[in-house]
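Notebook entry, structure prediction.
Reason for the run: the old model in the group folder had no record of what sequence produced it. Starting over properly, with the input documented here first.
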Amino acid sequence: MTETTSGPARGSRAKGSKASKGLRIERIHTTPGVHPYDEVEWASRDVVMTNWRDGSVNFEQRGVEFPDFWSVNAVNIVTSKYFRGAVGSPARESSLKQLIDRVVKTYRKAGEDNGYFASPADAEIFEHELAYALLHQIFSFNSPVWFNVGTTQPQQVSACFILSVDDSMESILDWYKEEGMIFKGGSGAGLNLSRIRSSKELLSSGGNASGPVSFMRGADASAGTIKSGGATRRAAKMVVLDVDHPDVEAFIDTKVKEEEKIRALRDAGFDMDLGGDDITSVQYQNANNSVRVNDEFMKAVEAGSKFGLRARQTGDVIEEVDAKGLFRKMAEAAWACADPGVQYDDTINHWHTSPESGRITASNPCSEYMHLDNSSCNLASLNLLKFLRDDDQGNQSFDAERFAKVVELVITAMDISICFADFPTQKIGDTTRAYRQLGIGYANLGALLMATGHAYDSDGGRALAGAITSLMTGTSYKRSAELAAVVGPYDGYARNADAHKRVMKQHSDANGSAKRMDDLDTPVWAAATEAWQDVLRLGEKNGFRNAQASVLAPTGTIGLMMDCDTTGVEPDLALVKFKKLVGGGSMQIVNNTVPKALKRLGYQPEQIEAIVDHIAEHGNVVDAPGLKPAHYEVFDCAMGERSISPMGHVRMMAAAQPFLSGAISKTVNVPESATVEEIEDVYFQGWKLGLKALAIYRDNCKVGQPLSAKKKDASDTNAEAEAPVEKVVEYRPVRKRLPKGRPGITTSFTVGGAEGYMTANSYPDDGLGEVFLKMSKQGSTLAGMMDAFSIAVSVGLQYGVPLETYVSKFTNMRFEPAGMTDDPDVRMAQSIVDYIFRRLALDFLPFETRSALGIHSVEERQRHLETGSYEPAEEEVDVEGLAQSAPRQAAAQSASEAETTEEHAVPAPKQAHTSAELVEMQLGINADAPLCFSCGTKMQRAGSCYLCEGCGSTSGCS
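New structure, fully documented this time:
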């Protein structure tokens, strides 16, 4: 793809020609003489975002311009989060073209100014290729790039920061200030407090030191204040303490004790939900805590021996503890409140490219960026599904060649950004410019594995993930070596050259020893092997431009921007998703990756249709018609009937870790029933498998969030028997009976020759309330069953079951009698109940609800034949049912989107606003996640953070 002064690189544009100073950029997707914007259809959209808690409008901007293939959610999030300028002013951005141009043209200019390109023509190709990849959602930069690049404000491009603090009051106060400035800018930071002397050591004045845990209180309060006074999301921070610090047990206990306080205050009637009025009185809630363990400690745990805690000033052992007991204490704390996580110090520093410049002591808040103190990392992530190819014969392959070319393009852009970037502190700026840490990664791994017929927890799935990760990092370092030939290696390379080349050899060796599994991963491994050979050869000659190249970040907001089904390295949340529609409304659809997976596994179209129908109804694949039980694992998800085991998550992390410069942002969820011993085992296996960091979350372990109401154990009841009587409120649905006089419609019908009558009675002002069905042959089994069925449906309606739920369940049900009817709106029925609920839908459901189900009247079908649209005349539209208005152009796009999924789609429940909430309703559980501070919807996990699908807000730093 490139040529440099060191000779032509493989795949270069002008093979055999004399190399010039600068990179020669090869076209990947674009056409000479045609701008990428001119190759897509653009549509005008209206963005109106509301707070689901009170219905207030959070954001509104009408007439924004986006490609017609961008989803409603991606349009909403990019418009509200990334467009710059005051809303309503002429300076406000209103088109994706403006946003991409603002960023891409800045990158091009900086590249030209700093000598990255061989010619103006190469700079133009770079600009067009970058614009194409962003336009088509092939990759995305991290959020700070979209916020800041090309604006008049400081052009901060990094999302991840690591600070440092020494054992002095001046340094501690600097820590508070620096952290506050980073939070103010919407980013997060991490640091290690182990240099601060413990509370068991003396000050120079002779008194006892306060210890790091006491100073954590001030920093936590500061983070909470900045969160509530500035940004709408929580401050993201990581606090690390070494396992040999004398205050490590107090550090482990901090959140456990506070969690006990939360429970006591909650039971006393205080509002202790996350975001509640009283939660701010609790300490240590604004940081993720991690204990930095080393091999010496883990071996002592393994052997059951003693381990020494060391004074910070002298390094002398001042106390010995039982290693197993301390490890157990960490697991008990994680079981109780999800903190602390674990970082494996020796593993981290074994892969450190710059050890002569200092050890790696900490990470960013999400644990994927690990490098020198006072440094930062800018991120970008590739959408893996964009590289999955299907040929005419239905065979699949991963486009390793194009993937590598896009990685080269993105890494080049990321390095250019450091040339013009601003940083929150002078120290961070100096270190980042000297070491040029980058963090390329990917999203949609879970969707890619399912689409290719791989179980997430399988050797084949891990092999494909490992191969892609190896190719990504190998290609990144190859490009870094090529950049070093053009613009020079990073400033700290000379003193770290041997270590950097050693780490490259470790990556290459891991690539060579990795297990190849099938026709999908083997070609990717081959491409990765070639890339690592180039890394070793070019690195020896040129050095490297970047001390770090890759991480796996949460990809929260940018994952939604790219319309990814899954974030980072995570599996799919569930098989049925929530989808917003242009023009208002929403529907639940079966993941598009499911039919691809079934096709890959050899199922025929009729079988695929039946299986997808089953998933649409039940939310899982258990007992799906024709699906082999051996294939169930392919459709295992993070939540649901068949959820992935905790060690399945750990093994996937271990498959990717040897091929990453940094680490992986991921929390391993364990069920509420998990034991402390099981958590100990996960932490221990993480060390054995070579991970750099690991965090545990046991479902429902925290109080400071919405939880499902559960009955108390008998032991709890006995323990509280002597306490004052507590009023227990049990919530049950209340039956709303119809008045004596009620409006109704009686309809006579025939289905397949069977005659009958349906009387549908309504509440005077509130919809359908009861249904009576009478078949013509009195005393028959059919007549009796229809009578009983109608009573059951009527009682359900009066207890609040929505009619659309019945319609979605009973339409398309097949049994005799079936066939022709005498109803012009429903000419054919697959059964009597199929007819009944189609008729009820036509009589009682609004147009947009039944249209999503494919139920239309004869007039609407005639209108479709004449105009191409089922859309009713203006006087027929249920205006109150529309979430937002949109031009006909956008509505037509909605219809085309719906056509591809309408067969397996039903209206989303009105209470659901995201996929996480939809899964809760389907499975009858509560996802253990907070509500979004911005829009009030239930968030879902993305790496170590939480992501709001509704508005794109995250609880983390990326």
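Summary: The first helix runs from residue 72 to 81.
The old model has been moved to the deprecated folder.
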